[in-house]
């Protein structure tokens, strides 16, 4: 399994970005995909998850602003981020749980940096 993120960058507060995560070597019919982030000096936190039946979950701090989605035909995971805030600044990672529980993310991408300026 290989995960490659893209779409990060620098944006002013209130702006938007869409992150993408291209998955390869992923023949699993039951899975959970997630976006995580880690800011300097802080622990990694889960941002959003989506499983193989399309059920999504989003952490409270980004609800109403971030949307996770997937395009199965393209094997790509997305994170649409709107109304960005400086506190959203972090390295963002996508991850895969091939068991489908959204609890055991064993595969990770290299990350993409998101920087939000005030």
Oligomer: single chain
Give a count of the beta strands, DSSP E runs of length 2 or more.
Answer: 11
Computed Rg: 13 Å
The assigned structural class equals mainly beta
| Helix content, binned percent | under 10%
Low-confidence stretches are: none
Gap from first CA to last CA: 37 Å
SSE map:
Elements lengths: L1 E5 L2 E4 L4 E8 L7 E7 L6 E7 L4 E3 L7 E6 L4 E6 L8 E8 L9 E2 L3 E6 L1
Parallel strand pairs: 2-11
Antiparallel strand pairs: 1-3, 3-8, 4-5, 4-9, 5-6, 7-8, 9-10, 9-11
Question: Can you describe what's shown?
Answer:
The chain has 118 residues and is mainly beta. 0% of the residues lie in helices and 53% in strands. The chain has strands at residues 2-6, 9-12, 17-24, 32-38, 45-51, 56-58, 66-71, 76-81, 90-97, 107-108, 112-117. The strands form two sheets. Strands 2, 4, 5, 6, 9, 10 and 11 form a seven-stranded mixed beta sheet that branches. Strands 1-3-8-7 form a four-stranded antiparallel beta sheet, with no helix packed on it. It is globular. The chain starts with a strand and ends with a strand.
Characteristic key phrases:
118 residues, mainly beta, seven-stranded mixed beta sheet, four-stranded antiparallel beta sheet, 0% helix, 53% strand, globular
